[in-house]
Specification:
The protein is an alpha/beta fold. 42% of the residues lie in helices and 12% in strands. The chain has ten helices and seven strands. It has a seven-stranded mixed sheet. Helix 8 (201-214) crosses helix 9. The longest helix is centred in the middle third of the chain and has 27 residues, at 87-113. Bound molecules: adenosine monophosphate (AMP), zinc ion and fe (iii) ion (FE) (2 copies).
Length: 292
Amino acid sequence: MKAEIDLHSHSTASDGTLRPKELVAKAAEIGLRCLALTDHDTTAGLAEALAAGKEYGVEIIPGCELSVDFQSGIMHIVGLWISPTSPNLNAVLECLRDDRLTRNQRILQKLANLGICISYDELSEMVQDEKSSIGRPHIARVLIRQGIVPDVKTAFQEYLGTGKKAYVPKMKLPPEVAIETLKADNATVILAHPYSLSLPLDETETVLKKLQSYGLDGLEVYYPLHSLKEREQYGEIAERLGLLVSGGSDFHGSVKPDISLGTGKSNLAIPYEIIQKMKDYRTAKGLPLVIS
Ligand code: AMP
Ligand code: ZN
Ligand code: FE
Ligand code: FE
């Protein structure tokens, strides 16, 4: 099957390495009909992506991805059809980015204490603008450039990963706050890469029911790191709970060289039907399909 859509991707507005326009051009080149840009904690890339979508004939769904506070594994929430100019959502995202600024400065201080000198400007230069979100992958890239580590994986293993030499935790919203903030902006809210919760299937289902009670709409069933078996199992859970099925590559460009846009392991070829079902769901709720 041919990849038709990709509902999870990152640009230089956060920790991806392609500018939004370059990302959309790549989507067009590989024949995608629809792409969601879902940068971490920012809407900074969306205007450029929406304009490029018109130019290249790719339908762009404006989105973002939030890390939320959860006791097990890693929980990320993706909002689709967010409004790039929403005052309320942007105020929340700005607060998260302010925390990142303090956190990044603390990480750089810890690295300095280890004799590794990185200036904040080296990080700022990698992103699109001052409303972009800077994180550990940017610091990892500088560590590689300075010859301190060979790759991103080692940067996390030795310095940036949880509990490592230069680790500093990040502020995370409670799941209900993240979901309610996105829903207040008319977003369709998806639990990203459920494998990263690191929970058995029955506990994953219990967690999803709880998130659904906060307003969760869907589950990212198609994901490059899900095996075919996991895709099937998550698909069954989504069906049982009446959740929308979503899917995306989580493309980041060269910082995650194993992940490619639209395609991926387990023949990640997401059919247009997935987005059509989301559109029907939104239409039934009277929610807009075109956001500019
Ligand atoms: P941050 O938002 O600054 O905490 O950074 C999170 C980003 O770092 C996400 O894009 C993750 O995929 C990436 N990341 C987290 N752990 C690792 C790891 N061990 N190796 C490579 N990338 C990682
Ligand atoms: Zn990322
Ligand atoms: Fe994620
Ligand atoms: Fe992501």
